[in-house]
Write a structure and sequence with these properties.
The structure holds two protein chains of two kinds. In chain A, α2 crosses α5. Chain A is built from five helices and six strands, in the order βββαβββαααα. By secondary structure, chain A is an alpha+beta fold. In chain A, strands 1, 2, 3, 4, 5 and 6 form a six-stranded mixed sheet that branches. Chain B folds into three domains: about 45 residues, 2-Layer Sandwich (Uridine Diphospho-n-acetylenolpyruvylglucosamine Reductase, domain 2); about 120 residues, Uridine Diphospho-n-acetylenolpyruvylglucosamine Reductase, domain 3, CATH 3.30.465; about 90 residues, Enolase-like, domain 1, CATH 3.30.390. Chain B is built from twelve helices and 14 strands. A five-stranded antiparallel sheet of chain B has the order 4-5-10-6-7. In chain B, about 55% of the residues are buried. The chains are: A alpha+beta, B alpha+beta.
Chain lengths: ~180, ~270
């Protein structure tokens, strides 16, 4: 980042948010395969960047304390909690959100597995669950049921629908 | 929750980071993975005037054999510590403890150096490296110096580094086949330990440290002395809290923590004794 990438502004424009006395840093993030260049305040969280600056509202904010995993997305192919990462930390990185995993109209195999196995009830935790689950299988393609349960420790479902979530992940692994 | 506004600088080397923090003064903080610092900032328990992002100083991310110890770069992420074949072979206690930090998403971002510098008595890796007799290498404007783990933890969330110094390497002695155990007692999988114990033992030599039993990670040296002196495991475990100063909170009273520490130290010693 060069110094002249920093400009003092009061209005970020695209999302209409007025920043009181803040300043913005220009970042370029590859989001779902497309380079996105934006001016962000250094304190802007990655989850607010994808939801508000880019309008990708599939990623949810749940607890906002890195406990619940509703904000899980991928940075450089690894699952992370986007409420505990700054947008500036994602500058120059590859970010994949729930909007970026289907191929056109064809759902990602994990999305299909959740649909076929009733892996959701209210759906609020689902984007984070799906992104975490894809990360689990990337690191361990044929997990046991116990391994899936342990690896999902960072994602909470307050409908307590864990059984079918685990079933969905295992179905995807074995599909 | 959004942190208070701060200035942001990105360093591309340890030298640049140290020079930036020297200019910025003690209201500036280093940002590594951010998984200890950002939650504090979101709760406004910390409001640094500047963050110096060291997350891209990639030459501080490594795990290397170095004679009698393993050298770990401060910016090595928990997931790399957890999955390192070198650590699994030579310091299995540390690789195992790293696998209990937070959850997979947290371990993808958090760094061993960040966790140790944060000096949280409730975190797993400060106590684990303390039990293992680690040495921390810090770098300042005048070069590097080493701090033995027991001299590093100065108080609640406080380390003994100078404001213009940065933790750059963690040196952990090889365990040479010692037995070991990591006991983490918590209510939910991803929680901090209510009480935790990291322990190793080789014959009459041992190291035991406690998680969340005081304002700093606690080296239970009375337990190791008792083992050295030939005490039984049950008797040695009774010394578990000799150095501790536990506080009560929503999860556990002082009495409950004291009881847990003795039970978990006994279990840890049993598991460590081959």
């Amino acid at each position: 980042m060069r110094h002249d990438d920093i400009c003092h502004i009061r209005d970020l424009g695209p999302n209409g948010h007025i920043l009181s006395g803040g300043y913005a840093v220009k970042i370029t993030v590859n989001v779902n395969g497309t380079a996105q260049t934006s001016d962000v305040e250094p304190r802007q969280l990655l989850v607010h960047y994808v939801r508000e600056t880019l309008g990708l509202t599939g990623t949810n904010v749940g607890c906002d304390t890195s406990s619940c995993g509703a904000c899980t997305l991928h940075v450089n192919g690894q699952s992370v909690k986007s409420c505990t990462m700054l947008a500036v930390q994602a500058d120059g990185q590859n970010v994949t959100t729930i909007e970026g995993i289907a191929k056109g109209d064809e759902l990602h195999p994990m999305q299909k597995a959740f649909m076929e196995n009733h892996g959701l009830q209210c759906g609020y935790c689902t984007p984070g669950m799906v992104m975490a689950a894809i990360g689990i299988l990337d690191e361990n393609p044929k997990p046991t049921e116990d391994e899936v349960r342990v690896a999902l420790e960072g994602n909470l479902c307050r409908c307590t629908g864990y059984h079918n979530i685990v079933k969905s992940v295992l179905a995807c692994a074995n599909g | 929750m959004i942190p208070a506004a701060f200035d942001y600088k990105r360093a591309s080397s340890a030298e640049e980071a140290i020079s930036l923090i020297a200019q910025a003064g003690d209201e500036a903080k280093f940002l590594a993975g951010g998984h200890s610092l950002l939650p504090l900032m979101k709760l406004r328990l910390a409001a640094p005037s500047m963050l110096i992002d060291i997350g891209r100083v990639t030459d501080l991310s490594y795990i290397r054999e170095a004679g009698d110890h393993i050298a770990i770069g401060a910016l090595t992420r928990h997931t790399e510590v957890e999955n390192s074949a070198v650590l699994q072979q030579h310091v299995p206690l540390l690789a195992h403890a790293a696998s209990h930090v937070g959850d997979p998403q947290v371990r993808h971002r958090g760094t061993i150096g960040g966790s140790i510098a944060h000096a949280d008595a409730a975190s797993d890796l400060p106590a684990t490296t303390l039990a293992l007799g680690a040495t921390y290498v810090v770098q300042g404007p005048n070069g590097r110096r080493s701090i033995a783990a027991p001299d590093f933890y100065a108080g609640f969330l406080e380390n003994s580094m100078n404001a213009d110094e940065m933790l750059v390497e963690i040196q952990v002695p090889k365990m040479n086949g010692a037995g070991w155990s990591f006991q983490k007692f918590n209510r939910r999988a991803q929680d901090w330990a209510i009480v935790g114990v990291a322990a190793w033992r080789r014959g009459s030599d041992s190291g035991v440290a406690l998680v969340n039993m005081g304002s700093t990670p606690i080296l239970a040296s009375s337990v190791a002395s008792a083992i050295k002196g030939g005490a039984s495991i049950a008797d040695a475990a009774q010394q578990a809290v000799a150095e501790a100063d536990p506080q009560g909170d929503l999860n556990a009273s002082v009495e409950y923590r004291t009881h847990l520490a003795k039970v978990l130290v006994r279990r840890a010693l049993e598991e460590s004794t081959k």
